[in-house]
Design a protein that fits this description.
single chain, 483 residues, alpha+beta, PH-domain like, Rossmann fold, Tumour Suppressor Smad4, 3 domains, 16-stranded mixed β-sheet, seven-stranded antiparallel β-sheet, 25 strands, 18% helix, Lipid_Phosphate_FormReg, lipid kinase activity, Diacylglycerol_kinase_cat_dom, ATP binding, ATP-binding
């Protein structure tokens, strides 16, 4: 049991208005409030105002002799028992705001009292474990190509107010973030902020075991923003995260969001030409694809999680997929090779196509308005599979509309299960045997079949046709969403 220590109530002026303020600096027992700054303006019936040092306060400094400036990022919070005066409007919308406290300690002690308040609040903020150095990668091509503008107008001022040392660099081409992450000086940063593609760069490092401890931050400035949505909806702003290893022969790739093939991949990638529409491009192109529905031959194999052993059909032993260490300068060196799990002898199951869609998820939300896998957890050691093999067009449209709340998984046309290992053997389009499909991992194409929209198949990470295997490493990474 801890106490909730407080500074003595002080006579102050808050942004020029007389008030009485108290600074609570030590958390009470579990479930109670944390460090807070509370005040009530003079006038009897005035509501009590509150700033949470953890959630609302960015930094604090002293002006002159007796003015304490609290730099805040504030929003309405109806869940609190007290009314917050640190509100920037309804809902979850926040804005920067400074609160100036003029201390009136009396007997010429104003300066000493102000300095004590500043020291106390800084010590509280330091104890929260916030990062002091950030390496930020800005993708100028994502979403509506507004990432640099968003960073300069909304993100950079917050870090400046919090006294964070920031190094920002724009990515210049596809794969650039991965390259920079693979050579990043770990001693110069405590958090990386970018899309989740930096995981591939980190895990290609020889010192990956140390590098993967670095939290990977996400600021939602793109089109989908599934990771940020999942974090804020389910887990809070910091969370351990499973990482999926994708193998095809000697080729290797890593995923933290999802792998898709069929309808969802076609919508995600082929709608790129409508990027100017923002997130509406997905709704528009989904309708296009449903009206001209495609089905793909192929097969899947999986090792079910406990409780899902009845799905699919039993198959014979499936060999393990492995990647060996590489030889460099006469020495064998190893980047991350994937989880040390053997699936030989496991209870493999199978489902054969044709398929409308195969979607393997690591987190619940695939985009801000798409709860693809409502049962997915950040660090449970499993992947969530959403499989559609046949569905009338009218029912498929209704199914997609239910993705906003995850109720689509209740459809009789959807097979939803958790798996420990997943193997996809993609086939050709039923309506056109000369055309293959697209395999999309975290919004990036890793494989294209013949005749698909976009770049040359030879430039992809993996080939189309041979089996692609996914395995999951529980809680390998840490993901962070600044709030």
């Amino acid at each position: 049991m801890g106490d909730h220590r407080a500074t003595p109530t002080a006579k102050v002026r808050v942004n020029g208005a007389p008030a009485e303020a108290t600074l609570f600096v030590c958390a009470e027992p579990a479930g109670a409030r944390g460090p807070e700054l509370r005040w009530r303006r003079d006038g009897g019936g005035a509501a009590e105002c509150v700033l949470s040092l953890d959630e609302d306060v960015l930094g604090v400094e002293i002006w002159g002799k007796d003015q304490v400036v609290v730099k805040a990022f504030v929003a309405a919070d109806a869940a609190r028992s007290s009314v917050s005066c640190a509100t920037g409007g309804g809902g979850r919308r926040r804005r920067r705001r400074d609160f100036v406290f003029e201390i009136a300690a009396g007997d010429g002690e104003d300066a000493a009292a102000a300095a004590a308040w500043v020291d106390t609040m800084r010590n509280c903020l330091d104890s929260l474990g916030r990062p002091k150095r950030l390496f930020i990668l800005v993708n100028p091509f994502g979403g509506k190509k507004c990432a640099r503008k968003i960073y300069e107008a909304e993100i950079r001022p917050l870090f400046e107010a919090a006294g964070v040392n920031v190094t920002m660099q724009e990515t210049q081409y596809q794969g650039h973030a991965q390259e920079m992450a693979s050579s990043l000086d770990l001693s110069q940063t405590s958090v990386q902020i970018h899309s989740t593609r930096v995981v591939n760069g980190i895990l290609q490092r020889i010192d990956w075991e140390e590098a993967i401890k670095l939290p990977i931050g996400v600021v939602p400035a793109g089109t989908g923003n599934g990771m940020a949505k999942s974090l804020m909806h389910y887990a809070g702003h910091r969370q351990s995260l499973d990482v999926c290893t994708i193998l095809q022969g000697a080729k290797k790739f890593f995923s933290v969001l999802h792998m898709t093939w069929g309808l969802v991949a076609d919508i995600d990638i082929e709608s790129e030409k409508y990027r100017w529409m923002g997130s509406a491009r997905f709704d528009f192109y989904a309708l296009v694809r449903i009206m001209n529905l495609r089905k793909y031959y192929g097969s899947i194999r999986f090792v079910p999680a406990p409780g899902y052993e009845s799905y699919g059909y039993p198959v014979k032993q499936v060999d393990n997929c492995t990647v060996e260490c590489q030889e460099q300068n006469g020495k064998f060196v190893c980047s991350y090779q994937g989880p040390l799990v053997e699936f030989q002898g496991s209870n493999w199951r199978s489902l054969d196509g044709p398929f409308v869609s195969v979607w393997i998820n690591n987190v619940p939300w695939a985009a801000e308005s798409i709860m693809a896998a409502p049962g997915a957890k950040f660090s449970d050691g499993y992947m969530d599979a959403i499989i559609v093999r046949d569905c009338p067009k009218a029912d498929l449209l209704a199914l997609l509309m239910k993705m906003s709340d995850g109720s689509h998984v209740k459809s009789p046309y959807v097979t939803y299960l958790k798996v420990r290992c997943f193997r996809l053997s993609p086939g050709q389009l039923v309506e056109n045997p000369k055309r293959g499909g697209i395999i999309d991992v975290d919004g990036e194409v890793i494989s294209r079949g013949e005749g698909t929209y976009g770049k040359s198949q030879n430039q992809d990470v993996m080939g189309y046709g041979p089996s692609i295997q996914m395995t999951v490493h529980q809680s390998l990474a840490t993901v962070y969403c600044p709030r």
